[in-house]
Amino acid sequence: MIDLYTDAVFELHETGHHPECPARLASVRKQLEQSHRFAQCRVHGSVPADPQTILRVHSQSHLDRIETTSRHGGGRLDPDTVMSPESANVARRAAGTAVDAVDTVLGESGRQAVCLVRPPGHHALADRAMGFCLFNNIAIAAAHARAAHGLDRVLIVDWDVHHGNGTQDIFYEDGQVYFFSVHRWPFYPGTGDVGETGAGAGLGTTCNLPLQFGISRSDYRSAVANALEDFARRARPQLVLASAGFDAHRADPIGSLGLETEDFAVLTELVDDVARTYCEGRLVSFLEGGYDLDALAESVDCHLSTLIDRDRERAASASQ
Is the torsion defined by CA of 218, 221, 224, 226 positive or negative? Predict the structure, then answer.
């Protein structure tokens, strides 16, 4: 059974008239209620992060700025990134939920989790908020997997339409966290060219798959399948983490690479296959982008239902 993390507290991060808004999760929750997904999962609430957990990835000055901005009523950290009085608490809970999901998944073979959190995280740099993101949830999760569980090969797969520059930057010279990103190119934030492959101990641990707007859906899927298979063979991960952004959907008002909802089932299957091949199925996904409310809700449902169906099929096969 899939572990699903969701909590109304994530809607307390108020952003005003902004695409990354509380209505995103409200729309997803309504869809999952209608499709009866909650009854098909182990449902968990949010968990606050210990500051030291966040500091594995972020600087003390960055943490202090987030806390101070919330205490003073919120405001803009950059032209795109907005905070409200509750934002620091919500961001801590997004990061803590990511860590708890890793603990849950690593505690049992075949365990998988989906984290419906906000604010998103993959643009957040070690010392700066960026692109709607306050703390880099998936980077915090990867760092925790190493520090608390002794892992030395973690694979992050990012299929958000925007390049996960923050995640790449944090682990660019690391050597133990492998980062794979498929994204629209050229596009915000301007990083993610094919020549960005890591440096120092991390040379070869970053793989970018930049794709131009107008690519066909079949060519998109084939490109991801081929590149991810090759990269996963090199990484041989002990844990797979996914930055599951849904703004490559054709209806998305910010991104779009022309994908349909069902294409996210294919992406989910590809990442699940990697997890099943190399690390006994251990996979955690984290919500990133997706700004058309209906398309986001349908795509998250598609992602979750794909994991549920595959988990049931394996359980049925094992019992025969």
Answer: negative
